[in-house]
Design goal:
Oligomer: single chain
Strand content: 15-25%
Number of helices: 13
Number of strands: 16
Distance between the termini: 19 Å
Largest sheet: 6 strands, mixed
CATH architecture of the largest domain: 3-Layer(aba) Sandwich
CATH topology of the largest domain: Aminopeptidase
Shape: globular
Bound molecules: ligand BES, manganese (II) ion
């Protein structure tokens, strides 16, 4: 390991400059305008895998954005780790809220990152974290210390629901055969408080349209006598939570996993300050389901949130109009045992049932995915825990996250494999927001920790 760490140390500038080049390509998966850049990013990663010494490196076309596959298989008697990551990023808009351009990476010091942080869209989610795996692999290859077989699958559609990866996994089960999946696309509590994510929430995402009259109307001539779809939509949305902030959809909580008091007590031991949380967000009070703590509300409980709402006149000045239609995008975060399809159909039934006769509602389901739980009593978790304990000098705390990586549940269903979520981001790294960044410390801590995971996992599974 000493030789490996020396090698990493010697190449720090090179690793950073390559990551900068990767971050300069705007691989926004949601926006067709960036299609060429998405392809360029896949090619960039392919080329780096070839240079790192991987074999069977290929770009796999899908009906959407391409998937990069690479492997290094040298001894069938040794375990195989399948590394997953994504090279696509969220749209950078609104551009004007960025202090520096989103695709021109720059290192700046922040309070949480005294050693500097890389500011760019995708720096943390997930280009920076994915690239740690490529460089860790290269370093192991160059120091002749790769202890086991490894396969990589890097996709370009995570931020839009991994639609085509699902078919790829179903159609390539032999190619993806492995013993464990390793993903760095989550976070730690703080740079001095390592943690391992052992739970992710699922997701059911729907779009609704409420239509009233067949055309926009003068709000003076018709207002008061014809249903205003925006008013109605607001009423309908408001009724989706009761006074305890519980979701009112019939059957919504039926399958929700009951977390035992003992487990809740254990979770509450993870360091968390409600006061710091509030002051960081500049809010006077938190808000959520009665009977649960802030951490619980954001991790082990399901939610329903409006992500966007529009309709009518939103231009400059005032226009008196009674709009013909109103729209909203609504996401529901799900917990273990809930199923995204069932929740989407419960939502649809409920939403249609509460619509007054004066309007017509349409519910269109978008993507969905299931929650995932990582057990802590198997060699995968033990190896991850040992690796972090060695690199951070502190035993990591298992924590459940509120975010979603739907492919994790799918890997388990289709390949029968558990996933280790060995992420290094901070909640404050502003992923999906303007000024996303990733700590230089975190980037190199990841590159240092990943080979340790390989080593311990191999030792525990020989
Ligand atoms: N990497 C995130 C998920 C994440 C971040 C999990 C931090 C835990 C901690 C991922 O790229 C993401 O943004 N997922 C989406 C879901 C997807 C279906 C669009 C999400 O959670 O909103
Ligand atoms: Mn991600
Ligand atoms: Mn993301």
């Amino acid at each position: 390991m000493d030789q490996l760490n020396q090698h990493i140390s010697k190449n720090k500038e090179q690793y950073l400059s390559e990551l900068f080049n990767l971050l300069r390509i705007p691989s926004v998966s949601a926006d067709p305008a960036y299609k060429k850049d998405v392809v360029k990013t896949a090619e960039f990663i392919r080329d780096k895998f070839i240079r790192a010494g991987a074999e069977n490196v290929k770009i796999c076309e899908t009906a959407g954005h391409p998937i990069v596959y690479a492997d290094k298989l040298f001894d069938a008697s040794l375990p195989t780790i399948l590394v997953y990551g994504h090279y696509d990023v969220q749209p950078a808009e609104p551009f004007e809220l960025w202090d520096t351009a989103p695709f021109e990476p720059e290192i700046r010091i922040t309070e949480k990152h005294p050693e500097g942080a890389i500011f760019a869209r995708g720096a943390c989610d997930d280009k920076g974290q994915m690239y740690m795996h490529l460089k860790a692999f290269e370093a192991m290859m160059e120091t002749d210390s790769l202890p086991c077989n490894v396969k990589f699958i890097i996709e370009g559609e995570e931020e839009v629901g991994s639609k085509h990866l699902e078919a790829f996994v179903q159609g390539n089960k032999a190619l993806l055969e492995a013993d464990i999946i390793l993903v760095s696309d989550t976070g730690i509590i703080a740079n001095h408080t390592p943690s391992i994510t052992v739970g992710l929430r699922g997701m059911s995402y729907v779009e609704v349209k409420v239509t009233g009259p067949n055309r926009d109307l003068h709000s003076g001539l018709y207002g008061g006598a014809v249903a205003n779809p925006i008013n109605i939509l607001c009423d309908m949305i408001a009724s989706l939570h009761d006074c305890d902030n519980r979701i009112t959809i019939d059957g919504f909580y039926n399958d929700v996993e009951d977390v035992s008091d003992a487990d809740r007590k254990e979770m509450a031991k993870a360091p968390f300050s409600e006061a710091v949380y509030r002051s960081d967000l500049e809010i006077k009070a938190t808000h959520g389901e009665r009977g649960f703590s802030t951490t619980e509300r954001a991790t082990i409980r399901p939610t329903l949130d409006v992500n966007g709402i529009w309709g009518g006149y939103i231009g400059k000045g005032a226009k008196t109009v009674l709009p013909s239609a109103a729209y909203a995008k609504i996401s529901m975060r799900l917990v273990p045992n809930q199923t995204s399809e069932k929740i989407a159909s419960l939502f649809q039934k409920h939403f249609e049932s509460i619509a007054p006769e004066s309007v017509v509602v349409e519910v269109k389901p978008h993507h969905g995915g299931e929650a995932a739980i990582v057990p802590t009593n198997f060699t995968g978790f033990q190896a991850a825990s040992m690796a972090m304990e060695k690199s951070f000098g502190k035993k990591p705390i298992p924590v459940r996250s509120g975010g979603s990586i739907p492919i994790v549940a799918l890997f388990e269903k289709e390949l029968g494999l558990k996933t280790i979520l060995l992420g290094f981001g901070l909640d404050s790294d502003l992923i999906h927001s303007p000024n996303e960044h990733y700590g230089v410390f975190n980037f190199f801590k990841g590159i240092e920790t990943i080979p340790l995971f390989y080593k311990y996992y191999t030792e525990l599974n020989k």
